[in-house]
Design goal:
four-stranded antiparallel beta sheet, 16% strand, alpha/beta
Length: 466
């Protein structure tokens, strides 16, 4: 390369000199509404990145000058500030058709639970009796409601069902044996397996039976002086079909009563508290049925079919529950004031209200095909011009509830597959989570029951037009 040619090449130094100073840049009126700490952090990062590109020769002086004058540099900073200020844990619209979607928070709370949670966010009654001013148990209200609803003598709430299982095993079976069917050795999300849970809890797991069939005599033959518990585990996230068999909880309770000191417990998982049948969930076990067997302890989740906040509930024999509460681990697993407030409000709906109308999860799961078809048509009308159509589809309860039984539903199908779905979900503000099926994006009305369809339509139109 000749000297003459070299002299005509743009200089990186010239490009760098076109980059505004941080102090001058952040004074621009377009940034007036942005909090200064956010603005300084983002603007510094954008200007530094622009400087690095200029030094590498990737942008020249004219390009930087155009970016500054044309406003693209300002728009980039504003967009990044908006993204940084958006909360990570924010509301989304669930149009996936999976009612209890683990990735987006499982059960949406009832309006009464949201109001209770908001109240409790300030100073609130947690461990004090307002009539006497004396210290009280923090879960006294929810325990009383559970006892009333289920007719049990003992109840306890902890921060999730995994914690409930761990606390139960640690408090009641440490150093002793727990008998469980080989066909119920579940693994839940995140790779947590029941054998590992038992090992960490300090008890000895005794597997009985075969994968597909376990008999009552398998449990009976395993009982010895070291046996602390007969444990039944609901295989919520899988099903074994064909030549199968498993002792009922009633049979295990009857067997346990023949042996002094042997506790019979069931981990129900989802824990359906609503008693009348719901189409598609007829085979899902109900908490009332398990309690009616006389089991010493029944465990279930609060944020699944119950429709409340994340928590784990232990109900049953008062003495057995008291032993769990007295264990030091309870303090590590106990619920905070926000969870207790939302849970209390949810349980009050079961006792005094109309759960099928007031609890969003139950309302969505019990919605009829005619209702969903009509709502799909309503949403389609609000999305005119996007080329959609109403189609029949299948939805699911989710979170391990009856995984092999789809629920009939209706959806609005929009043209476009993954790119369309990504645009609905991306960006700041309220994201719309949908699903892709046969090169179309489906907005399933099963999980949109209770949503304002006008708002949903505005969100969809805004994101697809952006």
């Amino acid at each position: 390369m000749t000297k003459e040619t070299m002299s005509t090449q743009p200089s990186p130094g010239e490009a760098v000199r076109k980059i505004p100073s941080l102090d001058a840049f952040v004074r621009r009126p377009e940034f007036a509404a942005v909090p200064r700490p956010v603005l300084l952090r983002v603007a510094r990062a954008v200007l530094d990145a622009t400087r690095e590109r200029a030094l590498r020769g990737e942008v020249d002086a004219s390009a930087i000058e155009a970016a500054v004058a044309g406003g693209s540099l300002v728009r980039e900073v504003l967009a990044r500030c908006e993204s940084e200020m958006a909360l990570h844990h924010r509301r989304v619209v669930n149009a996936t058709g999976i009612v209890l979607h683990t990735g987006i928070g499982r059960a949406p709370l009832a309006a009464a639970a949201i109001a209770a949670l908001t109240q409790a966010a300030r100073y609130s009654i947690v461990e004090v009796d307002p009539s006497t001013g004396e210290r009280n148990e923090r879960e006294v209200a929810v325990a009383a409601l559970l006892r009333d609803l289920l007719g049990v003598s003992g109840a306890l709430a902890v921060n999730n069902n995994a914690a409930a299982v761990n606390l139960m095993l640690r408090a009641l079976t440490l150093g002793r044996e727990v008998v469980v069917s080989r066909g119920e050795q579940v693994e839940i999300g995140g790779g947590f397996r029941m054998p590992d849970v038992m090992r960490q809890a300090g008890c000895h797991m005794v597997e009985v039976g075969a994968t597909n069939r376990t008999h009552l005599h398998d449990f009976a033959n395993a009982i010895n002086p070291q046996t602390a518990m007969l444990l039944k585990i609901h295989p919520s996230n899988f099903r074994i079909v064909g030549f199968t068999g498993m002792p009922t909880l009633t049979e295990l309770v009857q067997l346990g009563r023949k042996h002094t000191g042997v506790i019979v417990a069931e981990d129900l998982g989802s824990g359906l508290l609503w008693r009348p049948p719901i189409a598609g969930l007829e085979s899902e076990p109900r908490v009332h049925d398990s309690v009616a067997t006389g089991a010493d302890l029944v465990l279930f989740s609060g944020d699944k079919l119950l429709g409340g906040p994340q928590c784990g509930l232990l109900v049953g024999n008062q003495d057995v529950v008291a032993r769990c509460r007295a264990h030091p681990l309870y303090r590590a697993f106990r619920c905070d004031k926000l969870t207790l407030a939302a849970l209390e409000a949810t349980l009050r709906i079961y006792r005094d209200g109309n759960p099928l109308e007031e609890i969003p999860t139950l309302r969505a799961l019990s919605a009829s095909a005619d209702e969903l078809r009509a709502r799909a048509g309503d949403l389609l009308g609000r999305l005119g011009g996007l080329g959609g159509e109403v189609v029949p589809t299948e939805s699911f309860a989710g979170s391990g509830a009856n995984p092999t039984r789809p629920l009939p539903s209706f959806a609005v199908a929009l043209p476009g597959a993954a790119p369309t779905c990504d645009r609905l979900r991306a960006g700041v503000g309220v994201a719309v989570f949908a699903r892709v099926d046969q090169n179309r994006t489906l907005l399933d009305l099963r999980s949109l029951v209770g949503e304002d369809l006008d708002e949903v339509a505005q969100l969809v139109r805004g994101k697809l037009a952006g």
